[in-house]
Amino acid sequence: MNFWSKIRALFTARKKNTSGAMASAFDRFKSWFSPHNIFTRKNAHTLASNETIFSCVSRLSNSIGCMPIKMLDRDFRMISNHRIADMVINQPNPNMTSFDFFRTMEVLRDTAGNAYALKDYDENYQVRALWILDPGKVEPVIDKNTRELWYEIQPDEGPRDYAHNLEVLHVKHIHGYGYKGISPIEVLKGTSEFDQKVREKSLDQIESAITASFLLKLAGSVGKEKKAEILENFTAFYKDNGGVLIQEMGVEIDPIEKQFIDTKLFEVEKITRARVANVYNLPLHLLGEVSGVQMGAVEQMDLGYVQGTLVPIVRQYEQELNRKLLNQTERQRGWYFKFNTNALLRGDMKTRGEFYFKGIRSGWFKPNEVRALEDLPPEKGGELLYMSKDLFPIGKEEGRPNE
User: Fold this and answer.
1) Which helix (H) or strand (E) segment is 163 a member of?
2) Is residue 293 helix, strand or coil?
3) Dihedral of the CA atoms 109, 111, 91, 319 (nearest 10)?
4) In this predicted model, what pLDDT tens digit does every residue of 113-141 receive, in sequence order?
5) Which residues contact 67 (CB under 8 A, 6 or more apart)?
6) Is-contact 40 136, C-beta < 8 A?
7) Cα angle for residues 206, 211, 212 (degrees, 5° grid)
8) Nearest alpha carbon to residue 161 among 31, 26, 5
């Protein structure tokens, strides 16, 4: 059975064992795609209860979702009249925009450690949609005879189904032997539990500081009923007299100095923030840690964030799209998907102005290319490359060789 026969059999037959032909009809997955929470319960709970982790995941997923994606040819020209390009760039499935699709995939990757999207075919066996799967119900498996990678998928009801690795887009965090990424939530489990205990202690301190205001000392020991009576009289008098108290003989009233929270707990919060940032490979200043950061260094740190954090993630998405959505002929033509990371490094007006100025005068930017980056329409003459005439080769003077 050749490759395409295997793929066609994927949606027409049922896998009997790991060495036989594996198949699944897409209809059996339809119940997955009705509106429901696609997160596993444990990861969703951690994401919703820890603002530091939520901040990291929001930063990464929004960065991936905001980056423009294009299909290009070997000459870096955009390919727009292609059904796969239109699907990926605009509407990966009928329920999602491209932004929502890639942001959700990244959220799943950053919580469960893996994000999966199943290819859906039309009647002409052309890919028409990409459906996001619940990562908690997908398990990578290896065929013991062919050594090919398959994905075992457990629907809400019915038997397990299997999909060949070319039918499932899979982006993941780092991992060791195997094909399943490690969940950052699991790595941060101890940190999250410690952070939760610190928060509980902080709330207890705040509650105690608010409710306890005075220390009432009596001259002698009294019974339980008498204590309750004295406390009730004290509270009523304080309330009825606008906060003014009269100290009687044999009674001492000392105000309790309120300290809402131990300042050392803020140091613990910094440690938690640093640990979370390390796991997600994020610069600390993106999580609000701005102490010691000079304003001039922020742009350089943002460059480090793009190059050190986002580029490896983006590369994984690009290779999954190229390998599983483009056929071999299209790849041999030089077609490929490309996220534009430069969109995150545009800088302020002054920095961009200097960058464009040097690019145009040095002949590696066309004026219309700059106008396109600034969302301006092209102008006549702007499609040409220009070179400044005040530059001459070394060893020449006014364009003539030196004698």
Assistant:
1) strand 161-164
2) coil
3) -10
4) 999 999 999 998 999 999 999 999 999 99
5) 310, 314, 339, 340, 341, 343, 344
6) yes
7) 100
8) 26
